[in-house]
Amino acid sequence: MEDNAVDNSDHNEPDSGGGEGLDEDEETDEEEQQFDISLAASHSYMGAGLVAMSGRSVLEAGWVGRVPVVAHHGAVFPGETVPMLLPHAHDAAVLASAIRNDKLFGLLCPDESGTMVSGYGVLCEVFEAGLVDGQDAPSSLTFKARANHRFRLLDMPKRSVPIHIYKRMRFVEVRVLPEVQPGAPLRHARLASLDARRRASRTTTPLDSHMRSMDAVVTPWPLFLYEIFDYQRMRQIIKDYFKTIMFDKLPEDPVSLSFWVASNLALSPRDRLALFVVDNALLRLHMEVKLISRKSVLCCSSCMGEIARREHIFAMSSEGVHSNYTNLGGYMHDIVTVSTAINTELNGAPSAEYSWFPGYTWTIALCVGCMAHVGWRFDALKRNLRPQRFYGLCRNHVQPRAAAEPERSYTPPPPPPPLPPAS
Ligand SMILES: [Zn+2]
């Protein structure tokens, strides 16, 4: 997939793949087929030549080590899959060496401006890679890794350091940050007489809220502290929120859940970084619950024109509504999928080459307000595949805005192009 507007004249036949030869009988006989969202999570566009790596590194908080790191355009949270294609021989050689060693490398996170080193990053462990045995100097390297641990640079920059200094892999010393997960610190600051009515269930009811208030009244601790430490209450709010966008496979433990939510909420780079630097999982969840309550629309980062509404966000990958995908140039995009978008204009012809969603062609989508690239429209090659169409928006090209803020006037979306003729 390309980053910018390109001439796709070689791929201007949207139906040149599996769609050809659909006659009317087939169309009417074929049952609707829902897209298998595990296909997108498998990153099959990277090819079948990746080999699983054995052995895992278990790192404790406080672990200090020297690892190769490279700049990324945003915060990547532990738990995310990181598909990468390193087209540069230097980077490929450094990574090939790391794969033979402990399989670890780091992605550096920029500061709020996106241009300077924040001092934070995430350690990733390669779990599948193109064969590197016997090749000390591969010219390029394709692999998949899992983000595992947040880290801080051991030598935090004293003054602003541009992130582009880390455009190529460089070795730095890092320290793994702790993931604090308090148990129930307010367990002893409660009305024991209410214990019979407390339930260990996952649901939250007005009675639970009432009991929290009663506990707070008779102890020195304010009500908000009881709310911060009430994991089940926060989990329920998060579950309800993601249920509205049809995704209910949430991680169980507070640390994994807090990272998953950070990965899957539509957030500004500033809010993402704020969630990233927090060591306490319950505090991160508390911040996320507050962010959830802000209903928002997704806007073009360049001109703030509205592109999509929150309620149109849906999951096209079993990993969630946001996923990372790499293009042929080695650029890793962070994509949020939406069922419909407005104020966009397509550029170039549809292509099925290196499509992140097997069975769909992609076409570059630009913001009509400023012609900035905001993502791609994906169209099903077969008429029985559902959804027939959706958009993948780049997280670093769109950003959320509270719905209450002034909006640009609504422009109706352009009429859909005619379907390719059935032969
Ligand atoms: Zn724009």
UniProtKB/TrEMBL annotation:
Segments forming domain Lon N-terminal: 67-296
Record's subcellular location: Nucleus
Boundaries of every CULT domain copy: 295-402
Classification via Gene3D superfamilies: 1.20.58.1480, LON domain-like, Peptide methionine sulfoxide reductase
Metabolic or biological pathway: Protein modification; protein ubiquitination
Keywords for this protein: Metal-binding, Nucleus, Ubl conjugation, Ubl conjugation pathway, Zinc
InterPro entries xrefs: CULT, Lon_prtase_N, Lon_prtase_N_sf, PUA-like_sf, Yippee/Mis18/Cereblon
Keyword Protein biosynthesis: no
Start and end residues of each stretch annotated as Disordered: 1-33, 402-423
Entry annotated with the keyword rRNA processing: no
Subunit comment: Likely a component of a DCX (DDB1-CUL4-X-box) protein ligase complex. May interact with pic/DDB1.
Function: Substrate recognition component of a DCX (DDB1-CUL4-X-box) E3 protein ligase complex that mediates the ubiquitination and subsequent proteasomal degradation of target proteins. Has an essential role in mediating growth by negatively regulating insulin signaling. It also has a role in maintaining presynaptic function in the neuromuscular junction synapses of third-instar larvae.
Family classification: Belongs to the CRBN family.
Protein's name in the database: Protein cereblon
